[in-house]
Amino acid sequence: MPRDDCVTFKIFFNDTNGTTEVKKFVIDGDTSIITNFLFIREKLLTVFPKLRDVNFKITWRDAEGDDIVLENDEDLILAFTEMDGALKRCRR
């Protein structure tokens, strides 16, 4: 059963050669951790170590199907506000 103080992320890593790798991870903690963009970015570097060697963007897909770039805490909070359910989907 999902807890109120954790969020499950589903991440799509789109490599430059056209392959997509999908992983899930959970972040436990209060809102200040879950909505901390730098924390999420560092978590992505842990989950996908090959990101350490490249410049990358983090995006999420909104209800209209547009890919929205995440660059800071405010963008992340807006994404959480607009995404349905406990599972958050982000794209690289």
CATH class wording: Alpha Beta
Instruction: Write the CATH homologous superfamily.
Output: Phosphatidylinositol 3-kinase Catalytic Subunit, Chain A, domain 1
DSSP strand tally: 5
Q: Which structural class is indicated by helix and strand composition?
A: alpha+beta
C-alpha geometry: globular
InterPro entries: PB1_dom
Domain PB1: 40-85
Protein name: Zinc finger, ZZ type
Structure description:
The protein is α+β, with helices and mostly antiparallel strands and 92 residues long. It has one domain (6-91): Phosphatidylinositol 3-kinase Catalytic Subunit, Chain A, domain 1 (Ubiquitin-like (UB roll), Roll), CATH 3.10.20.90. Helix content is 27%, strand content 34%. The protein has helices at residues 31-34, 37-47, 73-82; strands at residues 6-14, 20-28, 58-61, 67-70, 87-91. The strands form two sheets. A three-stranded mixed β-sheet has the order 2-1-5, with no helix packed on it. Strands 3-4 form a two-stranded antiparallel sheet. A hairpin with a 5-residue loop joins strand 1 (6-14) and strand 2 (20-28). The N and C termini lie far apart (28 Å). The relative contact order is 0.25. The mean pLDDT is 85. It comes from Popillia japonica (Japanese beetle). This is Zinc finger, ZZ type. Pfam families: PB1.
Topology, pairings included?
Layout: E1 6-14, E2 20-28, H1 31-34, H2 37-47, E3 58-61, E4 67-70, H3 73-82, E5 87-91
